[in-house]
């Protein structure tokens, strides 16, 4: 299935979002509208395409030493989330040095969507076998990109199906062995739960290309989920491989590892930590606060001090016992957050993006409000930086908000509502995080969306409840992204690296002791400037793993090193 491509933005209406300009009015004058139209076209025009960053990337990198009977060397395996239409470059690193660079052309094995394998023969750029020790790889995948936002996932791939996707999140930590893993919450049992993992309430786990992970795609995390559409619900992935899952019905937040193993699950926040009786937490975010990592939660009950509350997190990712939160964004009269929040996102600089879930026709409340970073001031925030969506019937029932890792884009999901016998107002939109300008609307308007998230390189992930599928969209522009393998491969059967020891001067030469792999030929190289090296001797290390060798001495100062020979 080819990625879907469609020009987006025409249905949004450039004047339907409002900013703190032109008097902050929802219906702008003709003159003000012309100014805004020109300004918005400058913001979302061609300049955005040329600045787009990486969207294709390698994940699940594995290095495996091949037996001699299979030709030896190392099998480099990885998953690409989409084809690398501009090729792949693989650097093999020995410590801080690149010993070999492998290139793969677009369309060849190694540059395809899904599982790829490239063989390194264990030799350096000069064709010399490398010596014993650990080696890592650095994989750079590149693509020519798209002219517009494009779907890069396949709706008909088995892993894309989830009966009632109520949450979605991606592991963004490149130092994690789970880098790129996608987690999806299924909140309602489907008709074939006995046979299909996507029909079982719980947590689904996939690689970046949608394929099933090794330990199996489904887990209940050792919990009996209610499966009522809100248990489980929203997902977030924080640093330290911590996956947070909201049980909105029970008012509990769980934290676990990316395998969703029952043994890793603990309660991060619970009903006894609510700010007051009657409060209802509907959405959350985990991010940096003024005192370190914090848990930000949206309290949506209008009668119980609605707003965004903050809890300081312990080193294990759980909220401190007895902490009932602190109000950091107040909702209601006098605040730009006019009614109550439904979800919150934290940007890279600590800025807060808050959504209000409004379903009635003509509701004047803004759907999205951006606030500056909260800096531990005494009073909660009330004045926003920008707001958008006031009175827009095409934006109803906001469910989720997420900021991309660079802080450039904000994605918002809407579930929609039934109005006049028709389902309207459900969609996913992308905004400029700095200005609130409407960048694009993804395909599939007037459908139910429950959650959105971004991966480390800027792809947007969407949970579509109407079609029981999760999708991935790439922003426009050419791109490249680099992934460094977390694990290393040990060559030389774990033998120590060769090293030299000066023993004595003898007969006008320097006697060295070479320690290395038994029955291996080593070259001794000399240099006067640590830049140009010349071979000055060779030695074969015997069974003892140690061998003396005499090399000539010339010049006032020389440096020596050893490496495996030809």
TrEMBL record:
It comes from the Bacteria. Gene3D superfamilies: 2.60.40.4070, TolB, C-terminal domain (2.120.10.30). This is Uncharacterized protein. The lineage of its organism: Bacteria, Pseudomonadati, Verrucomicrobiota, Verrucomicrobiia, Limisphaerales.
